[in-house]
Amino acid sequence: MDIKVSSKTVIVFDLDDTLYNELDYLKSAYKAIAISVEPTDWRPLYSKMFSLYRNKINAFDYIADLYNTKIELLVEMYRNHQPNIQLFDGVLTIFEAIRAKNGKIGMITDGRSRTQRAKLQSLNILNFIDKIIISEELGTEKPQTANFEAMQNALPASEYCYIADNLKKDFIAPNILGWNSVGLIDNGKNIHSISHQYMNDENRPQHFIIDFNDITII
Predict the structure, then answer these.
(1) What distance in Å separates the CA atoms of residue 218 and residue 215, rounded to the nearest whole number?
(2) CA–CA separation, 101 vs 85, rounded Å?
(3) Which helix (H) or strand (E) holds 29?
(4) Is the pTM of this model over 0.90?
(5) Among 36, 65, 102, 201, which is least packed by CB within 10 angstroms?
(6) CA-CA distance, 37 to 67, in Å (whole number)?
(7) Which phi and psi angles does 132 have, rounded to 5°?
(8) How buried is 57 (Cβ within 10 angstroms: 0-12 exposed, 13-18 middle, 19+ buried)?
(9) What's the rounded Cα separation, in Å, for the pair 82 and 94?
(10) Where are the alpha helices (DSSP H) in 85-139?
(11) At 129, is the pLDDT very low, low, confident or very high (cuts 50, 70, 90)?
């Protein structure tokens, strides 16, 4: 699909499962935890943790019992580690194309400030983003319109577009506010996999893409 961009355009992105797979963040955190508790032979524990997760069994309960560790400590390690994650193919090309057309780039993401900013740092895209709105910092989260109205106030423009993945909550507010909306289809690894339940007009984006190579900035 073509997206027309000018100096009066703001393209806003979700983060988790939109610019990278959130499952990779989980794997990165599990690896960091496994190394912390079994530094000389962490791979078997990492394998066990990921298998437990895949079978919907709480890996933190398992580690807390096995190593006599508090779950709260494991959660802190999970949230505060520096992640090893990578952008989806085509994201940087889109960012560079938006910049070349003098458009602005925003980020609206739910989550904790420290965690989300660590992800952005690891993805090495902070220099591209003109405004970052994180739910913990603002005190509201999607699907409330406040996050999107805050973006409009921070980056006034005539055209806004939101690119995200989660039909349950991502597109309700931008649809209400008259933004363009683009849904990235689950590549089979998304943490949230229930988009089929939210195909009504309120939740659906105006457009769907398979990946970022489906977008051409004009």
Answers:
(1) 10
(2) 28
(3) helix 22-37
(4) yes
(5) 201
(6) 8
(7) -115, 125
(8) exposed
(9) 25
(10) 91-100, 113-123, 135-138
(11) very high
For 164-209, the pLDDT digits (tens) are 999 999 999 999 999 999 999 999 888 877 788 888 989 999 999 9
211: amino acid identity, one letter:
D
Q: 90 and 41 in contact (C-beta within 8 Å)?
A: no
Q: Which two tokens stand for residue 172?
A: 């309700």
Q: Are 185 and 196 in contact (CB under 8 A)?
A: no
Express each pLDDT in 6-57 by its tens digit.
Answer: 999 999 999 999 999 999 999 999 999 999 999 999 999 999 999 999 999 9
Q: How many Cα atoms are found within 13 Å in the side-chain-facing hemisphere of 173?
A: 23
Question: How many helices and strands (H and E) does the chain possess?
Answer: 9, 8
What tokens does 36 get?
């912390």
Let me know: does 161 contact 12? Beta carbons within 8 Å.
Answer: yes
